[in-house]
Design a protein that fits this description.
CATH topology of the largest domain: Rossmann fold
Structural class: alpha/beta
Helix content: 25-40%
Strand content: 15-25%
Number of helices: 10
CATH superfamily of the largest domain: P-loop containing nucleotide triphosphate hydrolases
Distance between the termini: 38 Å
Shape: globular
Strand order of the largest sheet: 6-7-8-3-9-10
Bound molecules: adenosine-5'-triphosphate, magnesium ion
Number of strands: 10
Amino acid sequence: MSRPNYILEINSISKNFGGLQAITRLSFNVEEGLIFSIIGPNGAGKTTAINLITSMYPPTSGEILFEGQKLFRKKPYQVALMGIGRTFQNIQVFQKMSVRENVMVGCHTQSDSGFLRCLMHTPSVWKEEKVIRQKTDAVLKFLDLDSKADMLVGGLPYGVQKRVEIARALAIEPKLLLLDEPVAGLNLQETEEMAGTILKIRDTGITVILVEHDMNLIMGISNRITVLDYGKKIAEGSAKEIQNNPKVIDAYLGKEL
Ligand SMILES: Nc1ncnc2c1ncn2[C@@H]1O[C@H](COP(=O)(O)OP(=O)(O)OP(=O)(O)O)[C@@H](O)[C@H]1O
Ligand SMILES: [Mg+2]
């Protein structure tokens, strides 16, 4: 039997914050090209897992491999350059910048020139600037944001702002995209649109790690689901397996999802 192609391998990682053990010996592998979801009650360690994968801070122990390469001691921008993009539980967009500018900031994190030099428009960066504009336009079109390119993000509906944040993450051309609660605060219609967006991203070959409390979304679009409770993995499997797992049902009983 051939071994699945794992883009990400998490080997027994733990994370302590002082006396608090946020993650305990967590292991999972993410197969390339799928939507892999992480669920669990509030405080289970989902965001901490995303922060460890993106090297916002190092694990206390254990190791993470992306395409077979250890992420140990890599800076977040280096991890981004390797091909890992993310969005945040608390949306992080520049409200007073246009949609296009927000996405261009994403592109510049992978350019040689750096954002400030590009703002000064020296001749050496003109060519690169053109490439960045083309990439930005392609991402805007892909996420149906082209008609809003010149609008200020702050004036747009929340669902669109969330899409702008995803567009910025896509601008670095990631192979792996981590989404931390992409539909939190969205209405039903916006949530359905976001489901379509996530599937569309997956269908281009980008692997998606999805953290969400919205069980309809999770059960509807995930290829595989892992469940955390108090920092530990309690189950992993397909939507059907997870829904019928007594440990999962137990973990959620009486808790806010
Ligand atoms: N930087 C930090 N410093 C100290 N404690 C932290 C830090 N980040 C997270 N924690 C704690 O670690 C635990 C896991 O938090 P985390 O944010 O990962 O949970 P979560 O599963 O994302 O929850 P939610 O669904 O509410 O977003 C919580 O007890 C939290 O208070
Ligand atoms: Mg969280």
